Amino acid sequence: MISPFTLINKKQKALFFAVFSLLFLGSIIIIGALLNEETVSTNLQAKYVSPTFLHPFGTDWLGRDMFSRTLKGLSLSVTVGVLGAVSSTFIAITLGMIAATLGKTADRIVSWTIDLFLSVPHLVTLILIAFTLGGGTKAIVVGIALTHWPSLARIVRAEVMQIRSAPYVQLSKKMGKSNWWIVTKHIFPHVLPQILVGFLLLFPHAILHEAAVTFIGLGLSPHEPAIGIILSESMKYLSSGMWWLAFFPGLCLLVVVRTFDVLGENVRILLNIEKKEN
């Protein structure tokens, strides 16, 4: 049996890490958005500079400060990831609700669609969608939205079906309440914590896949300082010993992804949601 004091301490730690993660991610987005073009402008007199106090991440082949480029790239990648993750979460909510509330036929169709998408790796489908749409920000957002919803939709479906059989929901039906009233007043408020945690845990996959597709040239425009573009451009200079061009952007990407993982896990603890395997 877990002691109440242990539970309180666990929640206090979870709250601390959740707040810290939010502040850290928020600061990256804000700083990246506030950086002007001059901070990443070309300066041929300062090219190929290794990490120094003035340039913590060094400079690239055009003399651009890699620290500023990395922050702007992270801010852009996080923004694109959020748009894709929000869209994908909306699809998951809609299909999960439909499967659980509109009868067996709708449930079979949605379940079959979920199994179909889960049978193909996200990244492969995302690459095909991005290639079909011609690349760019729009293609990446649409690709993330259409490929990352199945696992969350399955969780939403299971939660809704469990809540639907609860006594207070059955009582509301006997009192003549409409399905829309039951969904908005009973079902959705109970599923919302699962949706929130699902979104936070879905986002790391979205940003990593965005960087991967951009890395191979099917994502964001080469003129935008996305992390995938920075890493792709840096590959040709690694053999010349310019390790900092890929090391720091790659490390920062992993830190941001891990921070979202930490945020999602600690929000789950705060909301008393049991961890479920997909």
Task: Give a description of the structure.
This protein is an all-alpha fold and 278 residues long. The protein contains ten helices and no strands. It has helices at residues 4-34, 66-101, 104-118, 122-132, 137-147, 150-164, 167-174, 179-215, 227-238, 244-270. The radius of gyration is 22 Å and the shape is elongated. The model has no long low-confidence stretch (mean pLDDT 81).
What keyword list fits this structure?
mainly alpha; elongated
- The secondary structure category is mainly alpha
Largest sheet: none
Mean pLDDT: 81
* Residues in β-strands, percent: under 5%
Write the H/E string, N to C: HHHHHHHHHH
Mind telling me the C-alpha Rg?
22 Å
Poorly predicted ranges: none
Task: Report how far apart the termini are.
Answer: 27 Å
Total strand segments: 0
Q: Percent helix among the residues?
A: over 70%
How many helical elements?
A: 10
Shape call = elongated
Describe the structure concisely for a colleague.
The protein is 73% helix and 0% strand. With 278 residues, the chain is mostly helical.
Topology:
Elements: H1 4-34, H2 66-101, H3 104-118, H4 122-132, H5 137-147, H6 150-164, H7 167-174, H8 179-215, H9 227-238, H10 244-270
Helix pairs in contact: 1-2, 1-10, 2-3, 2-5, 2-6, 2-8, 2-10, 3-6, 4-5, 6-8, 7-8, 8-9, 8-10, 9-10
